[in-house]
Amino acid sequence: MRQVAAHAHTSGSRCRTEGDPAGAASRWPETPLRLVVVDTSILVDSLTGPRRSYPLLWRLLDRGHKLYIPTVVLYEWRRGPRTKPEIAIQEVLFPSESAILFGVHEAVIAARLYQQVARSRGREMDLAIAACAIAREIPLWTLNRGDFKDIPGLALASLD
User: Fold this and answer.
1) Which residues contact 156 (CB under 8 A, 6 or more apart)?
2) Domain range holding 132?
3) I need a labelling partner for 139 at 20 to 30 A (CA). Which of 11, 65, 100, 150 fits?
4) What is the DSSP letter of 20?
5) Is residue 159 domain-resident?
């Protein structure tokens, strides 16, 4: 955990965007969310490459937010080309054994969503992730809002 904390303090400048001197980390909802389901896009953007979303992710955790990854997100994350350090950081922040299970209830919700949304073919993983959030009535934090905006019953977190 010490490595993660040290990195969080040294990477704060990465949350600034061109033309935005205050940076993305200064834009926070008036009433902070306490529970959030995290999409694969957030893991990838936070823990790989330039780690653009890491400062915001760290700030959420530091403020006491509870961030959860579904087992479906864990699958998508782990099947990618991940390094040992990336997996290690993921395990510190989101231990695999704490992942939200995609069980019978979530499967039924995902199947219903598949029948309800337009162009559902090819969106099975997104629908399964959405079902995990819907089943628990927890907002989903994703960088791919367009992929989820038409899913009935899904609340999207506005954190960035």
Assistant:
1) 139, 140, 141, 142, 145, 148, 149
2) 2-8+31-148
3) 11
4) B
5) no
